[in-house]
């Protein structure tokens, strides 16, 4: 999961799309041994270091073992975590003050405001921390963050300070309506300086080099195979943690994990398209709409894809309804724009997507006209490009469908398939080693800008290097808007500019089909921020 600003203070968190995955009844015997819950996961953790983690699996494990100032409840509402309550905010909206509760790391050391100051300064000043931009103008707007990130100012000049051990004060460069929502995101979590510096380059690489202040602590991590989280008895809210152990098995083949579920060896597994029809009638089947949006990112350095008519043709030729209904079949829906459905609610109480325009609806006739026009403008009669994608579902199934459909619809189009593991795909995008990438983005906070910022000129995730003065100008106008209604409309105008440029092609918003043991309750999935939260997992006999 990679993002920016947030939503208007009014409905900051009401739009967080959260579900508690619960199955009503079923026949599966529990894989729980005593108070152990076993989950099958497709992807392993990449990093347990909150400064550097960017993927969903890592964010979930970090959230389970470390608390931030705030977190979210099962309905996606912001609630206190390490903070006793939400911040006291100055009248000018520039100063946020948090009082910390009495909490300890699992080595007995108190969690203090200094842990936050150290973590923030460390992350913002690290060139390798991909999410450090969230401290700046495209995120929390922490004072001096842009200069600290660029190296123009010292980390100590970042707008965060420990007034005392239990009081944290944060100064912003400008008001940020969604600031508190970001405080539930792992890149803003505390790090104990003494422990981190003692461990050096081994910090957070193995369980013995980790420190927990969350509901669980990691006790085992077999890379590519399994990791184990056990209840943290030092946790301030340990009485609310109902299971002793969470076991995460890394399973690349979901057919195998589905069989393991049937035999009672796992309590939770996701399902791919080939398994949905088999289990959809089961009362242990659950389906949610996730926040991840899959889209085509075009490399604007490619001489063919630089042509607007070629991008338009590809965008309009995709039969998205056929893709989600007959190929994916997992609850995914057609993407109507670059901002997903049920991400953010405006001051009018309506979902952003419901009041914004719909873009790139399938239109084969218009696609073919644009294709012919593009070929003529380029002086060619055929085009060959490659498509980079993850070699795992839903990307793999979607990519195969898109290749076949586009080649058969647009005469003269040849698409070479480049399947890669997710990490390799991201690295190839970073190095601009692609023509078209089928990629995804998951929202860090509930505001349209978590997507729209991605198309700003120079954004670190704008791997295709789309640039538009009009778009950048409109986004700046939105950032400087004096009221929420004006800002909302300016964001819609910005999205319109990029969509009419065919800067990217939104394709589908992913659904999550899964099986869950009827005895296991409280696995929460959230469309915004950390995808899965496990604090409230319990076994009900």
Textual characterization of the structure:
The protein has 541 residues and is of the alpha+beta class. It has helices spanning 56-65, 113-124, 145-150, 179-182, 193-199, 254-262, 273-279, 308-317, 320-328, 352-355, 364-378, 395-409, 422-430, 449-452, 469-479, 484-500; strands spanning 18-21, 36-41, 70-72, 78-80, 88-89, 95-99, 160-164, 167-171, 216-222, 226-231, 245-250, 268-270, 285-298, 333-334, 383-390, 413-420, 436-441, 504-516, 520-521, 523-526, 532-533, 538-539. Strands 12, 13, 14, 15, 16, 17 and 18 form a 7-stranded mixed sheet that branches. A 4-stranded mixed sheet has the order 2-11-10-9, covered by helices on one side. It is globular, with a radius of gyration of 23 Å. Residues 1-30 have low confidence and may be disordered.
Short description:
With 541 residues, the chain is of the alpha+beta class. The protein contains 16 helices and 22 strands.
List the SSEs and their pairings:
Layout: E1 18-21, E2 36-41, H1 56-65, E3 70-72, E4 78-80, E5 88-89, E6 95-99, H2 113-124, H3 145-150, E7 160-164, E8 167-171, H4 179-182, H5 193-199, E9 216-222, E10 226-231, E11 245-250, H6 254-262, E12 268-270, H7 273-279, E13 285-298, H8 308-317, H9 320-328, E14 333-334, H10 352-355, H11 364-378, E15 383-390, H12 395-409, E16 413-420, H13 422-430, E17 436-441, H14 449-452, H15 469-479, H16 484-500, E18 504-516, E19 520-521, E20 523-526, E21 532-533, E22 538-539
Parallel strand pairs: 2-11, 15-16, 15-17
Antiparallel strand pairs: 1-20, 3-4, 5-6, 6-8, 7-8, 9-10, 10-11, 12-18, 13-17, 13-18, 14-18, 19-22, 20-21
Helix pairs in contact: 8-11, 15-16
